[in-house]
UniProtKB/TrEMBL annotation:
Alphabetical list of InterPro entries matching this protein: NAD(P)-bd_dom_sf, Sc_DH/Rdtase_CS, SDR, SDR_fam
CDD domains to which the protein is assigned, alphabetical: SDR_c
GO function terms (MF aspect): oxidoreductase activity
Name of the protein in question: SDR family NAD(P)-dependent oxidoreductase
Length: 258
């Protein structure tokens, strides 16, 4: 028997990148998945999922998504709040409009959908997995409003775990580091990115959507029945240490001897 046989899940932002990888993994584990995205192109090539074209930030998004789930599966066991928008500017360049947009997509959408999904999750004693970010744990030079939103996602994860554990609902988050997706692919191989980001990771490598999908599949499964309120960083060790690679030491030594 597969790990999630017969379960019913919703994955938001499922058309590409991590959401797509998570959807494919849940389906491979025997799960029925409602894949939601604002863009139809990515969804239409997803095999084995129910699909819904829906903007997660729309006023009626929670009602529409949960109604589609009820219609397809009658029940909801797993909610994966993956939808997000990256690449935000630093705080000093963040206008009110930019702030609102990043908070809307990254935090408000998951907050509202999670809240409205609670009755279905109480019934199934289901669980939520939120996709946060290593930047929500550690901070970063840029990404002002994104950092605020992802730290908020982590806060909501812990609050909900505490409030709804007694009703049998688990709530966890995955905090990816740098994962290869259509949104990040361009910069991953530049010398600047390798020196500034990859060299700061103890494992010295970026991840693939499958790395995040494995963590989600674990947290969503019965194997994690005692795990709630946790944030699992899938980041090559980036947020667990102040890491200085041999290359960085050599570069620093070179500046001292010039
Ligand atoms: N890729 C990384 O390195 C990385 C690192 C840390 C955290 N994350 C987080 O993982 C999640 C997925 O990231 P990704 O890199 O796969 O992103 P991506 O940009 O590649 O894909 C996001 C998907 O969400 C959809 N989407 C965007 N706005 C939407 C909306 N309003 N309503 C419905 N769908 C919408 C897009 O159409 C797209 O299919 C995000 O929450 C992101 O913040 C990603």
């Amino acid at each position: 028997m597969k790990g999630l046989e017969g379960r019913a899940a919703i994955v938001t932002g499922a058309g590409q990148g991590l959401g797509r990888g998570i959807t494919e993994r849940l389906i491979a584990e025997g799960c029925r998945v409602l894949a939601v995205d604002v863009r139809p192109d990515g969804l239409s090539s997803l095999r084995g999922a129910e699909i819904l074209v829906q903007d997660s930030t729309a006023d009626d998004a929670p009602a529409t998504i949960l109604e589609a789930c009820r219609k397809s599966f009658t029940t909801l066991d797993i909610l994966v709040n993956n939808v997000g928008l990256g690449n935000a500017p630093a705080l000093h360049d963040t206008t009110d409009e930019i702030y609102d947009r990043y908070l809307d997509v990254n935090l408000r959408a998951m907050f509202r959908l999670s809240r409205d999904a609670l009755p279905m999750l109480f019934e199934s004693r289901g669980n939520i997995v939120n996709i946060a970010s290593s930047i929500g744990l550690s901070g970063y030079m840029g990404f002002g409003a994104y950092t605020a939103a992802k730290a908020g996602v982590i806060g909501v994860t812990r609050q909900m775990a505490s409030a709804y554990g007694p009703r049998g609902v688990r709530v966890n988050a995955v905090a990816p580091g740098v994962i290869r997706t259509p949104g990040t692919e361009d910069r991953l191989h530049t010398a600047r990115f390798k020196a500034l980001v990859v060299a700061t990771m103890p494992l010295g490598m970026t991840g693939e959507p499958e790395d995040v999908a494995s963590a989600v599949a674990f947290l969503a499964s019965q194997d994690a029945r005692l795990v709630t309120g946790q944030v699992l960083a899938v980041d090559g060790g980036q947020t667990s240490s102040v890491f200085v690679s041999e290359e960085m030491i050599a570069a620093w030594v070179a500046t001292q001897t010039e």
